Sequence to fold (478 residues):
Amino acid sequence: MSDTSRATDAYRALLDVVAAVEPTIADAIRGELDNQRHQLKLIASENYASPATLLAMGTWLSDKYAEGTVGHRFYAGCEYVDVVEARAAELARQVFGAPHAYVQPHSGIDANLVAYWAILAQRVEQPALDEAGVRHVNDLDDAAWAKLRRAFGEQRMLGMSLDAGGHLTHGFRPNISGKLFDQRSYGTDPETGLLDYAEVRRLAHEVRPLVIVAGYSAYPRRIDFAAMREIADEVGATLMVDMAHFAGLVAGKVMTGDEDPVPFAHITTTTTHKSLRGPRGGLVLCQPELAEFVDKGCPMVLGGPLPHVMAAKAVALAEAARPEFRDYAHAIVDNARALAEGLLRRGATLVTGGTDNHLVLLDVASSYGLTGRQAESALLDAGVVTNRNAIPRDPNGAWYTSGVRLGTPALTTLGMGPSEMDEVADLIDTTLRATTRASGPSGPSKAKYTVADGVVERTRARAAELLEKFPLYPEIVL
Fold:
């Protein structure tokens, strides 16, 4: 039986079983596949997982509770969960060259919370226990416990500002991390848009944080992690790197040397579903001195592990360990550069003037006189899926924004190359040049827009023609 026949039979059977119980859900699953097959996916944080990865999630491993860690569970009967988790952790160590890996986090936010609490446990809690001469927080008297709780809330964090490309989970008030830490931000140079390491150093010496966070969700360049570790060491901070966006580029050996965070960070977090091309979930990698604290993530922060997702992580990590994944990771960056060059040739303005990684940040306010929300909506009408994103010192704020973030991992998974990226650049530019701001009750709207007659239809047709050449999941025929 061919791969196409096996995959088709598997997914037809899956949908038939689901439809027999709840047909609305089966129809929605089919609809999502149809949507993804007919839209150009340029969201930098999305990708297409392999059928093997997807199928690994839909198993009876989901039925097992497995709080604790390998060989140390709070529930009996976890011998096969131990096999799954141990293999996933082994592959994570192999792929990233990490001394220790923890594969339980359910998401990137969970991974970051595990990392924060591991740092607090090592740097704040353990010294308090040692001082009190006890082994466990339950052994502290009320006065010592109250003192420790206050100490948890007195710690500072230094991370990248949101408008420069940081993430809510890096200590910002709407997220729990901002309620946990006294957060201060570093930004980018106002002229170049690039990280200014001298300014990061100055702020670190001024703030004296417990934690320095490096990593981004919308910064189109690479980071010198050796320099960030040097700064952290100077002020006695723990360096944490959130590589959720670019983990696939690290796994694929695009980012090596000083650009590889794993050897320099005390602790590294990531999602598994972006450039790594796995299931939705998270990982924590760390140096040996933090391992015992990271492994307490469940029940310290996490609920029961998701064994079926850990199985899918193992499958995706096994794929990332193959030589062809390196080719894929390098192609992601080649495509991002081709997309950036195509937009620049057409007169668009890009934050930092280009890209060195998997994403491009298009300044739609300067380029087309639009807000990010208007540009995102017009592009979706035309069959191009993106997301609006703030740019440094954004005058339109974090909701409407002045930028649109574009990423190449998903289209690279489909097999597209630089010539297709130039075509995509033309589709984006053509659509946005034909889009104008509409008026609202009190003047020009930040949300309403109009697109010139016929442009949406023509762009959708061109996108469909492109996607026909690079079909999604061709081995699945429903």
The domain at 61-320 is CATH 3.40.640.10 (Aspartate Aminotransferase; domain 2).
